[in-house]
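TL;DR need structure tokens for one chain.
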Amino acid sequence: MKLTILINCFNERNTIIDVIEEAKSLAIDKEIIVIDNCSSDGTKEILEGLKEDKEIRIVIHQKNMGAGYSGCEGIRLAKGEYFCAPGADREYRMIDLLEMLKKVERENLDAVFGSRLLARSNESKFQLIKERPFWLGTIIGTTLVNFLYGRNFTDTIATKVMKTDILKKISFQSHNQAFEFELVSNLCKMRCNIGEFPVWYKPRTHKQGKTIRALDMLPALMAIVKVKFFR
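>> reply
TL;DR here they are.
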């Protein structure tokens, strides 16, 4: 199997069906794993009704275990040669995953990071933050990773395509939003060959269900430092 697509969801009743259908439409040998993190808005009931669909594997948690826990579980269950977790909020396009996969194989990479800022890398960081304040977390986290590991990424938080066998070697400790930063730090510490690819991105607001908050950056930055110096 070529690709495992992990769809993590929490209270995504407005988008979950469309996201699953987008994943199913990708013309590639794939498996689709959907993990619901104890939704309370009707998402869980929607997924219960899809359990007979042979194209998807559904896991429903009876307790909110954290986004990072679902990521770890998805990696453990994954059977594909490559792994991605685009999310259930439709902030990214599924079709970009195919182009990222082509880049991984064409350039013999271990991973490709989708970048929301690659095409805007020459713009002022201040202007980007003024435009959308949430870019501050992206810029701080990415700058720290670049500094500690001698990299030159423009965005380390967006969707990714990675070799599954490498991910299975990582012993993750973060079960919250810091998971993404712990993942990136481990890939860098393992000296993986990583490329970037510009991806389409349409951020939603907190009113629309976005769950990441400014305070989530504290454990995220701590995860980067812990991987670098204490593991």
